[in-house]
Structure formats: C-alpha cells, structure tokens
Write a structure and sequence with these properties.
This protein is of the alpha+beta class. It has 9 helices and 5 strands. The protein has a 5-stranded antiparallel beta sheet with strand order 1-2-3-4-5. β3 and β4 form a beta hairpin. The longest helix is centred in the N-terminal third of the chain and has 25 residues.
Length: about 260
C-alpha cells in the first residue's frame, strides 16, 4: 500500500515536472526563469484563509524581468494553485491577502503549456490586461487529489530515474543556456566590435565567468572557461588575440550536426 507521505511526494514531483515544462517553454521564449517550487504542504493554507489552496507551485524570474512587469513590487511569481490554476502574482508590501493583485489566467487547472506561455506573452505587453482579477475555483481544497495527480503525471518524463524535478530543472536550464552560448559564439557574423571597459568592470565579468566554471555545469562551464581565457589573452596587448571559445563552440555544433545526420 502506498503511504500518505509517499503519495504526497509523488504528487509534489508531478507538480514540479509540470512547472518544469512551463519553465522550459518560457526560457525558450526568452523569459529569464530562475527557479521552480512545488509544494504539497497544506499548513500555510490552513493558517491563512486567503490562500485557499492545498497544493501549489511557483515559477520565479530574475529581478530585471520582475521590475519590467511591476516596477513597484518586491517580487513577481507565476503561481500555480491546485484549486484555481495559474496566476501572475506581484508581491506587494502591505497586501492584506496572499493573492492580492494577482492576475488569473483561467483555462482550468492543468491547461496546455502553450496556453500558459501565451498568458505570459500578454503579461509582458501589459500586465494589467493579462487574465482577470477574478479568481476562479475548479476544485475545493482537500478534495480528492487522485484525478489532479493523474493529469499532472503526464508531465513526468519517463527517463527521470532517481532525479527530482529540481535536478531536472537545473539540467534543463544549463542545457538552454549552453545552447544559447554555443549559437552566439558560433554565429557566422565575425565582425569585431570595440567595447570600452573600466578595469573593474572587466574584472567583474571575469569573476562571473569564473563562478560559472563549476564541473556540474558541463558545456556551460567549458564555454565560460574558454571565454575567460580569451578575455585574459586580449588584455595582454602584446599577445595574439585568441578565440578558443568560438573554436570550441563551432567544433561542438559541427559534431552535433554530424551525429544528427547519422541519425544518432
């Protein structure tokens, strides 16, 4: 028999993988997603009647993106509620209720991923016109979660093995950004441009590149290391300018194209 805690854990993972699917689509649309969070902890809802949900999750963004949507908010989240579906939530100091100011998407509890990305596309144009201020309710808190779990389970990858949704999110983000760096570095446009840096700004950039050079980051780490070496080399005016990051990116992309052509 499946224990209650085990069932709750499976539901949490299913929620997380649904959030991951939305987060990946948003990243590919250029939205700077920074985290996903899934929860089946009902204590917060019990303590605050304004929440009125039993399971939920959030997708977070970087600060610049949050400010572009709601300049006066402390933070902004794309929230999924197990009773009301998706909403865009600006977190404002002094708000009386948890969902004060939320813009609700509608379209049910588990709408298709592209429906959520369309909602976010509208929010990027005009947050005040995206969705509705009226909160919908599709199920009651603490009602049967079996059907909801079944629908969410469709988003759990068959090959996750022992990886959690959080581990899958980290791997997905690394892959998306590695592909972006690879495409940028291997662009056919080789035009050189002059950019003026203060010494401190150049050092800050090098520190950021060093921070990314974590073995677990895979290709992202490799690109950061080679790009950092190229910048250091160009800083020495007597040295021959190097383009190791570009060479590595083009080599990797060529190998990938060759593998695709062989059907591997």
């Amino acid at each position: 028999m499946t224990s209650k805690s085990s069932a709750s854990g499976e539901l949490k993972e299913a929620i997380g993988h649904y959030l991951n699917a939305v987060a990946e689509a948003l990243l590919r649309d250029g939205v700077p997603v920074t985290y996903v969070r899934a929860s089946t902890d009902t204590r917060a809802a019990a303590d605050d009647a304004s929440i009125a949900t039993d399971v939920d999750g959030d997708i977070g963004f970087n600060i610049s993106f949050e400010r572009s949507l709601y300049p006066e908010s402390e933070s902004v989240e794309l929230n999924w509620s197990g009773t009301s579906g998706w909403s865009l939530m600006p977190m404002v100091d002094g708000a009386e209720g948890y969902y004060d100011g939320a813009r609700w998407m509608g379209a049910g509890l588990v709408p298709p991923v592209d429906r959520v990305t369309s909602f976010m596309a509208m929010a990027r144009l005009s947050p005040a016109e995206a969705g509705s201020s009226e909160r919908p309710f599709y199920r009651q808190p603490d009602s049967d979660l079996t059907e909801l779990h079944r629908r969410l389970a469709a988003f759990v990858p068959a090959s996750t093995g022992i990886r959690t949704y959080g581990m899958c999110f980290t791997s997905m983000v690394q892959g998306v950004y590695a592909n972006r760096l690879s495409a940028a570095l291997s662009s056919p446009d080789d035009t050189e441009v002059s950019v003026a840096f203060r010494p401190g700004e150049l050092d800050a950039l090098r520190h950021l590149l060093e921070y990314i050079q974590i073995p677990a980051n895979g290709l992202l780490s490799a690109y950061a290391r080679h790009l950092s070496e190229d910048l250091d080399n160009r800083r020495q005016f007597s040295a021959t300018p190097s383009h190791h990051a570009v060479e590595v990116a083009r080599s990797i992309r060529k190998r990938l194209r060759d593998r695709q052509q062989r059907g591997e």
